[in-house]
Amino acid sequence: MKSDAVVVGAGLSGLVAALRLAEGGLKTTLVAQGVGSTHLSPASIDVLGYTPELVESPAGALPAFRTEHPEHPYACLSLELIEESVAWFRERTEILGYTGSLEENLLVPTAAGVPAPTAIVPASMAAGDLRSGGHFAFVGLRAMKSFHPAYLAENLVQAKLPSGAAVEARAVLVSDPGVEPDVGALDYARAFEDPAFRRAVASELKVHLQPGESVGFPAVLGLDRHAEVRRELEDALERPVFEVPGLPPSVPGIRLFRALRAAFRRAGGRWVMGAMVVGASTSDGSVTSLSVRAAASRTSAYEGRWFVLATGGFASGALHLDSYGEVRETVFGLPVWGVPPVEEPRFLPGVFDDHPMAKAGLAVDERLRPLGPDGAAAFDNLFAAGAVLAGAEPWRERSGNGLALATGFAAASHILEDAS
Ligand SMILES: Cc1cc2nc3c(=O)[nH]c(=O)nc-3n(C[C@H](O)[C@H](O)[C@H](O)COP(=O)(O)OP(=O)(O)OC[C@H]3O[C@@H](n4cnc5c(N)ncnc54)[C@H](O)[C@@H]3O)c2cc1C
């Protein structure tokens, strides 16, 4: 099987790299074992939220952040390129109506009632922007046990906003006509696509709303027809309606995944899902092919001129920590940077602590090519993007999707330069 470019991974970084390469005229194959963290994480593009201080303007904070963190993947990217990646992304996901910019972070509520800084959000989350305060009613769907609007509202009213504006928030419960107990986010997303269901929810809700309140729903307002679902709810309730992302699965993330996959296919890309890359062949400092094993089939070789490793971190199997405490990169066996010695602590008790292991990953050169043991690019035609890269702490920085977007875009840009 021959392509110009082969991208490994179907998370945000792989989807972005593959789409950009296919649009750039390269015969591109995306191969992935499974879906990535799009299906788990909110679809907001968090470029830089904390340094650790709250970041109000990513564009304002990034230059100093890059200088202070030369090992960070953002240090390989210019501000112009990050801005270009955001503009490109907004155009490719027009159907989801992304809004925002690098100039000013929005503050959108998490399901725990924390105002979270983020650069751009899908249209479905935009009316939840808290920067100027406001009055909000958060809707509880009685059969949805993973979303707690009273807890959310209680925390949100205590939050201190940089603007000093006040948030008034409360919970409203509706009984979900026709939905069985304990259904999940995807069941609700499908239920909201039924006009009768959403009309029934809106009519029950409307009588409980107060003047001036915007309405926050858990992020389950439809999958393929979400724009219609939200528009009809806004019309029926006569006020802005928005979604609050919650526990996985992430319905907004699935919409994003589908939008990018559809764009990739339209651009002529070849999509191979359910196939694991288990090794590679190399010659004279270049990767020549990947060994790909699909379920119940033999291993086959995927040849290419350029390769992008967008395999994620520990959670997706890109990095493996064995019982001897050794960490390895699982496809190429590349050196993993930032791993503390076995005898030193690697993880700390608190979730958001400064875990010594948190920055582990692949070190890269300025063109995002992973470094080999000698500190030079391991292969001239292998690029890396997203959570597999060393030096970032996406959870603490709130930078995960921003990094995935910008590095996926940048890796593809370097390849397109080489190809031209
Ligand atoms: C629950 C959760 C919540 C999050 N919340 C936020 C948030 O609020 N804000 C934020 O900015 N970020 C958040 N993130 C982080 C963010 O989603 C990720 O950092 C980012 O999307 C990483 O994308 P990626 O493409 O690099 O990797 P991933 O999304 O992990 O994708 C990796 C891909 O590689 C594939 N793969 C791995 N190994 C192989 C192999 N050998 N062969 C073939 N395929 C392989 C996987 O199947 C998958 O398709 C969250 C992540 C999670 C899990």
How are the elements arranged and paired?
Layout lengths: L4 E4 L3 H12 L4 E5 L25 H11 L10 H14 L6 E2 L5 E4 L5 E4 L1 E2 L1 H4 L7 E8 L7 H10 L8 E8 L10 H8 L2 H12 L6 E6 L7 H12 L3 E4 L6 H16 L3 E4 L1 E9 L2 E9 L4 E5 L2 E4 L9 E3 L5 E3 L52 E3 L9 H4 L2 H20 L1
Parallel strand pairs: 1-2, 1-15, 2-11, 7-8, 7-9, 9-10, 15-18
Antiparallel strand pairs: 3-6, 4-5, 12-13, 13-14, 16-17
Helix pairs in contact: 1-9, 1-11, 3-11, 7-8
Bound molecules: flavin-adenine dinucleotide (FAD).
Report a brief summary of the structure:
The protein has 420 residues and is of the alpha/beta class.
CATH class of the largest domain: Alpha Beta
- Distance from N terminus to C terminus (CA atoms, Å) equals 23 Å
How many domains make up the coordinates? 2
Count of discrete alpha- or pi-helical segments spanning 4 or more residues: 11
Question: What would the CATH topology of the largest domain be?
Answer: FAD/NAD(P)-binding domain
Radius of gyration: 22 Å
Question: Could you tell me which ligands this complex binds, including any ions or cofactors?
Answer: flavin-adenine dinucleotide
Q: Which band does the percent of strand residues land in?
A: 15-25%
Strand order of the largest sheet: 11-2-1-15-18
Helix content: 25-40%
Number of strands: 18
Q: How do the helices and strands follow one another from N- to C-terminus?
A: EHEHHEEEEHEHEHHEHEHEEEEEEEEHH
Find the structural class using helix and strand composition. alpha/beta
Shape: globular
Main pleated-sheet profile: 5 strands, parallel
Known CATH architecture of the largest domain: 3-Layer(bba) Sandwich
Q: Give the mean pLDDT.
A: 95
